[in-house]
Amino acid sequence: MKLTFWGAAQQVTGSMFLLETDDYRILIDCGSDFDLDEKDRRTRYDEQKSVFPFDASMINTVLLTHAHIDHSGNIPNLFKEGFEGRVVCTEPTLALTSLLLKDAAHLHQKRLNSHNSSSNKKRGRKKKDVPRDYFVEKNVIEALDNFVPVSFGQRYRISDNVAITFYAAGHLLGAAHIVVEVTENGEKKKICFSGDIGRSNYPLLIDPQEIPQVDYLVCESTYGNRLHEDTTSPAEALADVIKRTCIDIPGRLIIPSFSVGRTQALLFTLNKIYADHAFPNLKVFSDSPLAHSSTKVYQRYVKLLNKEARTFHADNDILFDFDNLIYLESSDASRAVSNYNEPCIIISSSGMVQGGRVEQHVEANIGNPYATILMIGYASEGTLGWRLLNGQDSISIRGNKLPVLANIEKIDVFSGHGDQNDLIRFVKMQDPEKLKTVFLVHGEHQSMTDFQGKINEFGYKTVEIPLRGHSYEL
User: Which CDD domains does this entry report, sorted A to Z (predicted)?
Assistant: First the structure.
């Protein structure tokens, strides 16, 4: 049996791991790589003559840990390049992945339309090749027709010699740790793929489930050398910010937030705050059609949420909608919020302030000393969110250089990733005498090496940090 690391190897995004037995090939996750810019991705794909470094048609089954695009975003391309198998995931992951992939296809289509329109206007212009990793809605529909949902805890056989079990990982509705059992030459081996590990006591989501003893562990390490800073509850932390920025002074609060997962945690927490604190008539604008659709999915799967959410739902009949919450669907409605002069809260994507409607809200308010931009998650280097967090006194948005007069704040209670303590807790579910190897993935290199040293201290001696394309015989 061979395991090859084709993504999230000494980097954060692009999760993709190939497990090969004597007669069966399984791809665990098939994510988009955002660590490379578009030029570098083009170069890699041209060198490979494919989006993938392997023949897509040779894959028998894809196992999907969760819906986020850095884990699911290249699944339509796998089908485009000849994959004919199944994609196995949980039912909520299927629902959320459908939304995310269709949203990505819509963006690809807009870019293709813009490119074609520009090419037609300029005669003699050399037509640029369409990026290999672009897909459109028909490719998404083809892929979704081949998804197979399974339940948490249900042992599911995908071939004569391979069985899988999904365990709730927290992090996102439907997210899973996947344990793969392979029988070769009469010997059974178990490999766990962590996916993204959630944190305890996170809004809406259950805590990560304990997994059984395995022989090999593929573990994410996003927060391998960091601890979450805030120790208060999400409701307490958010209520404090709202009081200071919208009530004590007549200001507006802008919260960049990812549409799937983060926004639902925010809306649920705001619903609780409004019920518990009797805040004044303060409007909340949720400005993301994708977030609105995702919120409906969360509402549909209340039974898979944590006890607090289920109890709140039983008492109030609904998790997210509350007085003064307004969903903005159209672009015109989004732009019109700039003319709303009362104190308010605006939640909009993307979470890193890189593209999406939130850019226009930041642009309209960055020069307002009565406005506050609240960052609630990680922003990768170079993004507008990263520049705001690093205290730059001016920023450029869509070619306009603007002074930063708005207040910039940060809380990390809404981060969906477990921190170093959560990762250690996950690894320590395994007996170090029985666990043969830990493979660290999905993290920055320094985070991986620091976490490697940390778990070495607990007796886990064989801890590998694979390079992209590196294979291991298990």
Answer: TTHA0252-CPSF-like_MBL-fold (cd16295)
